[in-house]
Specification:
Order of helices and strands of chain A: EHEEHEEHHHEHEHEEHEEEEEEEEEEH
Strand order of the largest sheet of chain A: 5-6-7-3-8-9
CATH topology of the largest domain in chain A: Rossmann fold
Oligomer: heterodimer
Helix content of chain B: over 70%
Number of helices of chain A: 9
Radius of gyration of chain A: 26 Å
CATH architecture of the largest domain in chain A: 3-Layer(aba) Sandwich
Order of helices and strands of chain B: EHHHHHHHHHHHHHH
Number of helices of chain B: 14
Number of strands of chain B: 1
CATH class of the largest domain in chain A: Alpha Beta
Largest sheet of chain A: 6 strands, mixed
CATH superfamily of the largest domain in chain A: P-loop containing nucleotide triphosphate hydrolases
Chain lengths: ~425, ~290
């Protein structure tokens, strides 16, 4: 037993940061973090001298036949580690050794060619994964059966739906018979029934093979994995029982303080002279991660220094490093006499804001009849929050910023379908 | 534990470069399938399909015959100017395509290389194989014209049969030269993007210093001082070889072909070295 099939020793991966022409160190850091999140950890061309460790001194061992969950928040270094193990890029320091063959499902259908048929693509994809033609021929029937696309197997894959594409890709990968299988959240695609089938298949594989699985879905991880590695800012901070890592993961997003006191906010110019915001309570929350399409309930403490009338609260949502992306305004809700203190309950609807990290700034303002905004008070970094995936909202899709943008607009309205030609 | 036998050992990119030829051989099916993919994809996308392979040298040769043969009036060797130009442009075309196509290796496979590991050399080797298929079609077409003309008495040529037997080796030489230069350029373009713009320009310049549109003797007779320099171009003896082998003309000298082979070996080694250095960290740069 206790046969070690994969061993990483003091592995580090350093990236050099490119010069983007940012002004301050804070901007640099913010810009960098957003690039990390937004661009899948691929940093631009190495031009500058600044470096950053995506992974630092990571060591671990994986036993044969174990199913290991790789857990961490966005940007913790999961993808980098997987890229190193699957030899897409080389580590800066340290070494990784393993026995047998590694197959990675970093993206299914890798190398599929649109013009080739499903069958031809099985061979190509299999060969890319390191099988010989003879080995693929032996598994062909099984792969086709598993993929559920028998009827279209001799059709070019450009005519496939994205679901069929994924199914075929997974079928090839699952039958590669690798010694170590790496999966990165692929199961979030395809219909529910096929997802369950994949999870069952992976459970079967886990018996004799070794599976490393990356997901943010703790439910799936509980089904599949027995041990876990927990990464935090490029460092391996936990290796052991799965529940321990899940606990850390949940803990990392828990808010320690849902109350923000604004009395320390510096007021510039006339800000805060007539009315000011004094505190903020985030209500009904255990974490700073909100589901896409959800809302943030809060209570805002207000204080009138002079008499004020018809003030509005506005929230400016920005991405760290890339400026304001959206704003929300309340109605003219606040009217008060000098010396009054109030608590205003508000709900900030997140609408179509896509997954990612955001900063919210709060403004207390008055909009005059000709559209000029007069600011009464500002709290620049009132709170930070993150938006998570919402499969129900997005028809089962994982929202992908690179593909879909950072915002989902309201759905299009159909104006009726008129048939112009009968078949 | 000393008894552990790891099958893969991933280490940082070191100073030295080593290409794992054993691994490359294990991936030979992938090379075949990649070549097939490219061939089928091109074939399915074009209206004329493989007919392009024949049209392309016909057009080139036709233009050469008109421009250089008739307008410029370059004196060619052998029984017909058309055969002379075709015998030069078919092998040149093979070499030029090898160089141009393999120099795009990283650009064409950006997505694939970023997603999955396989020996990166598989891609340019497959490219050379596809180019080889085209060359075979064009070569067969050339031989068809040659033997057809002979048979119907349009012209008489006397091939040097011993040289003809050596053709596969010279084709291998051209392939290695194109591949070596191509992967060297492909590795450099990862750093210096604008280099890729210079490739096709450079290749056409290279053609003019090679005896494709004129016989080697024309240049060395006129400027004997430049002869050595001219013959040091590794493609010069290769094209002279083809003319000597199939048309029985020209001033082919085996010594220069050996020199060409030596230079090819050096270029190939430099190409492998540059390629090997880039392939490991390519995914971080793109």
């Amino acid at each position: 037993m206790n046969d070690i099939v994969l061993k990483a020793e003091n592995v580090s991966k350093r990236y050099r940061l490119g010069q983007i022409g940012l002004s301050t160190l804070r901007d640099d850091i913010d810009g960098f973090v957003s690039r990390l999140r937004g661009k899948d950890e691929r940093i631009g061309r190495p031009a500058g001298q600044e470096t950053f460790y995506a992974l630092k001194d990571v060591s671990f061992e994986v036993e044969k036949g174990s199913a290991v969950a790789l857990i961490g928040r966005n940007g913790a270094g999961k993808s980098t580690l997987l890229k190193l193990i699957s030899r897409i890029t080389a580590p800066t320091e340290g070494r990784i050794r393993y026995k047998g063959r590694v197959a990675s499902l970093l993206e299914v259908g890798t190398g599929f060619n649109q013009h080739l048929t499903g069958r031809e693509n099985i061979f190509l994809n299999g060969a890319i994964m390191g099988l010989t033609r003879a080995e693929i021929s032996r598994r062909l029937d099984e792969i086709i059966e598993f993929s559920e696309v028998e009827r279209f197997i001799d059709t070019p894959v450009k005519r496939y739906s994205s679901g069929m594409y994924v199914k075929l890709g997974f079928a090839v990968a699952a039958h590669l018979d690798p010694d170590i299988l790496i999966c990165d959240e692929v199961l979030a695609v395809g219909d529910t029934r096929f997802q369950e089938k994949c999870i069952r298949k992976m459970g079967d594989l886990a018996g004799e093979h070794t599976v490393i699985y990356v997901s943010h879905n703790m439910h799936t991880l509980r089904q599949l994995c027995n041990t876990a590695l927990y990464l935090e800012e490029g460092r391996l901070t936990y290796a052991g029982e799965l529940e321990g890592a899940i606990g850390r993961y949940a803990g990392s997003s828990r808010l320690t303080d849902t109350h923000r006191d604004f009395s320390g906010v510096k007021h510039e110019g006339n800000m805060g002279k007539l009315a000011r915001m004094t505190y903020l309570d985030l209500n009904n929350v255990t974490s700073n991660e909100y589901e896409m399409g959800g809302g943030i309930d809060m209570t805002l403490g207000l204080e009138a220094v002079e008499d004020v009338k018809n003030l509005r609260v506005s929230a400016l949502i920005s991405r760290p490093g890339s400026g304001v992306v959206a704003s929300s305004f309340s109605g003219p809700v606040y009217t008060a006499n000098a010396g009054q203190k109030d608590a205003l309950s508000l709900r900030l609807p997140l609408g179509g804001l896509g997954p990612g990290e955001y900063d919210a700034a709060l403004w207390l303002c008055f909009i005059d009849p000709i559209g000029r905004m007069v600011s009464y008070d500002v709290v620049p970094n009132a709170f930070r929050f993150s938006v998570g995936q919402n499969l129900d909202m997005n028809e089962g899709m994982l929202w992908n910023e690179k593909r879909h943008g950072i915002f989902r607009l309201p759905d299009m309205e159909e104006g009726g379908l008129k048939r112009e030609q009968e078949s | 534990m000393p008894d552990e036998n790891w099958s893969v050992d991933i280490k940082p990119r070191g100073r030295g470069v080593h290409i794992d030829f054993k691994e490359l051989w294990r991936y030979r099916d992938l090379i075949y399938l990649l070549a097939r993919r490219t061939f089928v994809a091109v074939y399915k996308q074009t209206v004329l399909g493989p007919a392009w392979a024949i049209l392309q040298p016909l057009l080139t040769t036709g233009i050469f015959t008109v421009v250089f043969g008739m307008l410029v009036g370059i004196k060619t060797e052998g029984p017909s100017a058309f055969l002379f130009y075709m015998c030069g442009s078919v092998p040149w075309n093979f070499f030029a395509r090898c160089l141009e196509k393999t120099s795009q290796t990283f650009r064409d496979n950006e997505r694939l290389f970023g997603k999955v590991y396989f020996p990166r050399l598989c891609a340019p080797i497959a490219t050379v194989l596809v180019t080889l298929i085209n060359f075979a079609i064009q070569g067969a077409f050339f031989l068809l014209i040659l033997s057809g003309g002979q048979l119907f008495g349009a012209f008489t040529v006397t091939p040097a049969w011993t040289l003809v037997a050596l053709t596969p080796l010279v084709v291998l030489l051209m392939g290695c030269l194109g591949l070596g230069a191509g992967i060297a350029v492909s590795a450099l373009t990862v750093r210096y993007k604008d280099l890729s713009l210079l490739v096709s320009f450079g290749v056409s310049l290279w053609m003019y210093i090679s005896p494709v549109a004129y016989p080697a003797s024309a240049l060395s007779d006129k400027y004997p001082a430049l002869r050595t320099l001219f013959m040091l171009n590794p493609m010069t003896p290769v094209i002279e070889f083809f003319r000597a082998a199939f048309l029985g003309t020209g001033s082919f000298d085996p010594i220069w072909l050996l020199a060409s082979a030596g230079m090819t070996a050096v270029i190939f080694a430099v190409g492998l070295m540059l390629f090997g250095r880039v392939e490991k960290t390519f995914a971080d740069v793109i």
